Amino acid sequence: MPRDPQVDLIFSHFTPRYVATGVDPNDLERLRATIERWDDWCRVWSDEAAKHAQFGEEALQFGRRVTASESLLRAAIYYHYAKHLFADRPDQYRAAHDAMLRCYRLAAPDMDPPAEHLTFPFDGAQLHGWLRRPVSPSPPPVAVILPGLDACKEELHAWSEAFLARGLATLTLDGPGQGESALALPIRTDWGQVIGAVIDGLRARQDVDADAVGVVGQSLGAFYAPLAASQEPRIKACVANCGPYDWGRVLPQMPKVSQEVFRVRSGAASLEQAYQIANGLTLDGAAPRIQCPLLVVFGGGDRLIPPAEGERLAREASGPSKFVLYPEGNHVCFNISYKFRALTGDWLAETLFGT
Question: Which of 175, 198, 237, 267 is the most exposed, fewest CB within 10 Å of its CB?
Fold first, then answer.
């Protein structure tokens, strides 16, 4: 039986992403060699995840908490990639999703620093996030980090490390249509209210500085972040990494499985309806309302979202803006993660700390 071209397409788009966010390259080579049909994708990734989960749980029984946390985090990332493009197959998606959450929650107390699961009431449901705080003599500013269309807050663990190392607290957040929050909330455009609800929740705490919140996003999350900044004046800085300006123009060019993820996450009954919803996801008219400092990052080799989308956002924002193009970068610049993480971490820390 010939190999399913869908499998090769997804590996060609996302291999740098898998490695940059915690998939062991040796495991990835085995997965690439093993998966021949798209129908087997979720099962094979889940089988690989289960090996790491078992290794971590055995370490936990012996009190080897560092080993356990590292292994369970890796298992969570693998379970995430098992389901990240399987939203149209709800049974397989939910099984992998639940396993991912279980592994990350087991790993969370022994992370350095630990991760605390938070919920924020929103529109009759809840937004879900993971808060991590560095050791600090005073409450630190907060980077609220948003995933993309098929990502989730757990995938953002590696990026959060860049902000933590520079003294910021991090809140990796599943907003409407994302990860854990997608189970009750479809994709929407009132992201100022979303982040506003988060800031309200953070203000009730004494261990973070809720008056110094920056919002950071990747891919479709890099649309939501500047959209939120255009609507919520309490946001003090914004980072957009390879996000669209007009999602309606970009979506039809995405891989079909990605289009299906958007259809499911937006609550559309058909792709045609999904395209109509996507047309409403635009920064036209919103970008000029962004007054906080804005950093836009793009890869010149992005095959999913054209860099011109980011150039337009940076050009139209009313506040101070900076556009950085890495010619060699792919989508989200995962193939040069050491560059974009250092840049975004430094820029946001300097902006929020006022240095």
Answer: 267
DSSP 164-227: HTTT-EEEEEE-TTSGGGGGT----S-HHHHHHHHHHHHHT-SSS-TTSEEEEEETTHHHHHHH
Q: pLDDT tens digits, residue range 4-43?
A: 999 999 999 999 999 999 999 999 999 999 999 999 999 9
End-to-end Cα, the chain, rounded Å: 60
pTM: 0.97
pLDDT in tens, 295-342: 999 999 999 999 999 999 999 999 999 999 999 999 999 999 999 999
Burial-class residue 193 by CB neighbours within 10 Å (0-12, 13-18, 19+): middle
From residue 154, how far is each of 185, 245, 272 by CA, in Å?
Answer: 18, 25, 31
